[in-house]
Write a structure and sequence with these properties.
Order of helices and strands: EHEEEEEHEEEHEEHEEHHHEHEHEEEE
Distance between the termini: 9 Å
Strand content: 25-35%
Radius of gyration: 23 Å
Structural class: alpha+beta
Number of strands: 19
Shape: elongated
C-alpha cells in the first residue's frame, strides 16, 4: 500500500473524481482522494492523497490558490464556461483600459454567487444536478477573498482577455467571468482555465498521468522485490523514496512532508503504542500549544496521529496505519 501525496497535473476533459479513479488504477490502490475540485474543462494542479494520506485532507491548507484563465466576451452561457448553452449575447468589445479598470472592483473581500452549475448543495441536492433537470436554483452569495487579479493581455481578434489570479478558498473563476462580463455590459464566459497552485502544491512540481504510467513501472519492480523478500507490511512513501532513485522520489510526497506546517510533537514508542490504540497521552512542557490546538505526534520522521491538545494531554483524532 502506498501512503503519500501526489501533485497531479490534471488534463482537460476529465473530472477530478475521474482523475482519482485513474490514479487508483495506476497504483493499484483502493483509497485516494483529492484536495480541491477542478472542472472537467479545467487543467492544472490537483493534489491527490493516497492511502493513509487521505486522513490529512481536512488539515492541509488550500487557502491560497492561483489560476491563469481566458474570458471570451460577447456571450453569457448557462455554465459560465465553454461547455454551456448561450443565453445572452452582446456586440460590445471591451478595451484594455476598461477591463483593467473594472477588475479593481473584484480585488479584496467580495460577495460572489457560485454558478448554477456547481457542487453547492441546495436542500441536500447538488446545484448542478438541479440545473441539469431544468430547475433554476437560488444560490446565496458568499464572501470570498481575491488577493490579486491581473489583466495579462487582450486578444482583439477573438474578443477575449487573459488573466492571472491569486485567491482564497471558495472562489469560482467562472463567476468572475460572468460578473466581470456583466460589469462591462458585454457578458463573458471562461474558455481556458488552468490552476497553477494550491497551497504548497505548485505547477512546476506537478506530474502528468502519462509520466506516472511510465514512472510506476519502476515502482512495480520495487514492490515485486519487497514481496519476494517476504515483507508483507505496507510500503509507505518514505520507505519507497529511500534508495529507490529519483523516479519514485520525484512524485510521491510523504505524509510527514505534507504536514510540514502542522506543529509536531515528538513522542516515545510506548506513547505511540497507546495513541495507536486510541488512548490519550499525558505530555509535559508543551508550552507552544493551547487547548484544542491540532498537532501531529511523531516518532522520528514517522507520523503517528493527528491529535488535539487538551489540558496537558494529546488525544488522537486520526491515527495513521503506516
Amino acid at each position: 500500500m502506498i501512503h503519500g501525496w501526489l501533485n497531479l497535473n490534471k488534463p482537460i476533459g476529465i473530472s477530478s473524481a475521474q482523475a482519482v479513479t485513474q490514479i487508483k488504477r495506476i497504483f493499484g490502490i483502493k483509497k485516494a482522494g483529492h484536495l480541491g475540485t477542478l472542472d472537467p474543462l479545467a487543467s492544472g494542479v490537483l493534489p491527490i492523497a493516497l492511502g493513509e494520506a487521505t486522513k490529512t485532507i481536512p488539515y492541509l491548507s488550500c487557502d491560497l490558490k492561483a489560476y491563469d484563465f481566458t474570458i471570451k466576451w460577447g456571450e453569457q452561457r448557462t455554465t459560465d464556461d465553454l461547455g454551456g448553452d448561450i443565453i445572452r449575447t452582446s456586440t460590445i468589445e471591451p478595451q484594455y483600459s476598461q477591463i483593467n479598470c473594472a477588475i479593481k472592483n473584484f480585488i479584496g473581500k467580495i460577495k460572489q454567487t457560485p454558478p448554477q452549475f456547481s457542487a453547492i448543495k441546495i436542500k441536500g441536492a447538488r446545484a448542478y444536478k438541479l440545473a441539469r433537470s431544468g430547475q433554476k436554483v437560488n444560490i446565496k452569495p458568499r464572501q470570498v477573498k481575491i488577493h490579486e487579479l491581473k489583466l495579462i493581455s487582450v486578444d482583439t481578434i477573438n474578443n477575449s482577455a487573459n488573466f492571472s489570479m491569486m485567491c482564497g478558498s471558495g472562489v469560482y473563476v467562472r463567476s468572475i467571468a460572468r460578473d466581470l462580463g456583466i460589469a462591462l455590459n458585454c457578458f463573458g464566459h471562461i474558455t481556458k482555465l488552468r490552476r497553477t497552485m494550491v497551497g504548497d502544491f505548485r505547477e512546476n512540481e506537478s506530474v502528468t498521468i502519462e509520466q506516472l504510467i511510465e514512472k510506476t513501472r519502476f515502482l512495480v519492480s520495487f514492490q515485486r522485490v519487497t514481496l519476494e523478500s517476504r515483507k508483507k507490511e505496507p510500503v509507505s512513501a518514505t520507505q519507497m523514496t529511500e534508495g529507490t532513485g529519483s523516479n519514485v522520489k520525484s512524485f510521491i510526497i510523504p505524509v510527514e512532508s505534507a504536514l510540514k506546517s502542522m506543529f509536531k510533537v515528538e513522542i516515545s514508542l510506548e506513547d505511540a503504542g497507546k495513541i495507536r490504540k486510541g488512548q490519550e497521552v499525558v505530555l509535559n512542557n508543551l508550552r507552544n500549544l493551547k487547548n484544542h490546538d491540532i498537532c501531529c505526534t511523531v516518532v522520528g520522521s514517522v507520523p503517528i496521529a493527528i491529535c488535539s491538545f487538551i489540558y496537558g494531554c494529546v488525544k488522537p483524532i486520526r491515527v495513521f496505519n503506516i
